[in-house]
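Supplementary material to the annual report.
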Amino acid sequence: MPALPTTIPSGPSFGVAAESRFGSGIVWPPETQLLLACSKLELEDLGATRVRALLQQGIEWNRFLRLTVLHCMTAFVYRHLESVASDLVPKPAIQFLRDRFVQDGAAGLRNTAQLLKLLDLFREQNILAVPYKGPVLAAALYGNVAFRRYNDLDILVSRTDVPRARELLGKEDFVPLHPTTPAGREFLLQKRHSEIFIRDQGPIVELHWAFAKQRGIFPLDLDMLRPRLREMTLFGTPLLIFGPEDELLILCAHGANHLWSRLEWLCGIAELIRNNPLNWSQIMRQAGELNSEKAVLLGLVLAADLLDAPAPEDLIAQGRRSKDVSWAANLVKRKFASGQIERPDERSSIERDLFRLRLQSTNGARMSYLFHRITTPGRDDTRIMLPVGKRFVPLPALFRPFQILGKFAADILGGHKGPDPDHKERS
Amino acid sequence: MKNGSVALHAEVVATRKQISCDLEGEAVILHLGEGVYYGLNEVGAKVWMLVQIPRTVSEIRDALLRDYDVTPDDCTRDLLDLLQQLMEWNLVEFRNGRGPGPS
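Predicted assembly:
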């Protein structure tokens, strides 16, 4: 076992620049530091040393295990604590992690089996269906479907194939989570990006035909991705998945959309960068075309700063020079450091919308985002459709602007204010 | 052990109606037809990894003898018991020779 260093390494780079990369003025509790230290697929000697050193400092185990589970990092943490520091971890904690990992593995296999069955059905009907996130991402990035925790299966099809895909899911006893009328289904197809299906024995299937509900915001679909799809085999079944550059774009956009509230998403970015030669010119050119430059830069800055991902230095510098990217990165880091995990229903609408607005590339994109935010109904708003001219409009759409204003008012009156990332805290 | 020399030359491989994942030294297997999960400890997981391609029982035994401090007789007996169990669970099949047979 390597000897403990005389000083505890302060961050992945172990250098003077570490503090600025982690965010100056942010207090990082040891539990969060330990979680970050465990967040690489492979720990080298220096990483193992850091893990042991942090454990020696003392860890509040309930807090640490809660953070591990909420950030979906069980597999990583179990792997590293078991292999490099089992002598320093309480037996109940190791047992908890192991049991949780086994549960995740079993659930992962069940969901994978269902995914492969659905993909076979789509293939038989000549529907190009590309799975992403879930077990496919776990296998591609980590080599093991048990290394990600997921409750739903995401499948992307072309918009024109959606009606047939819906029918196939229906034959497998999947029903829409938000039942609607034929007019409602057509409205969803035009105005939203996905539909959720459920059934008694699970899993949840999210059928996508785009990536963002607002057209013009991340306007990417299967037809654009098709030329760059690559082959992969999952348990002997050949699949088509996104190319690594497209995967990075999609993961960065997804993470930004959800305010990077889950550390495992960032691990995916870091491992993708570590293990794939990427065409960065292509990535940034496409990011520009998709109004997602800042989202990509944010993902790279966070992956580099928190997980030591080897992203290009010029892009990291570009991200740090951007006031919006720096503001967003600081906000995400403060939330990580605080251990704050928000369920979707707890998230402040104002904070989320401000975050997304600041990551839009142009004022035009910001206006488009606001317009669609205020006018696009939710999935469950299409049960009652009103005829308006030759089209149908969901009844709740008429009240949508008031609904949104109501949410903002509730946030303000309820004390939800976006944290001020310029507020300095002593480290 | 019944007819051990024949059993040792038998080729064994995982069946196709299952998927599995590694759990840091352990393994969990889902039989797709039956919808049943099976868990394997470290040694079982090692054997499971080895039968992902067709191997003879003796090859598997020799791999275990390299990794574990156990006598050849004990190793062979325990291995045949495990393979018997896996066969009863429809997780492995034997080719080109008889399997362990009923104990």
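Residues 7 and 98 of chain B are 6 Å apart (CA to CA).
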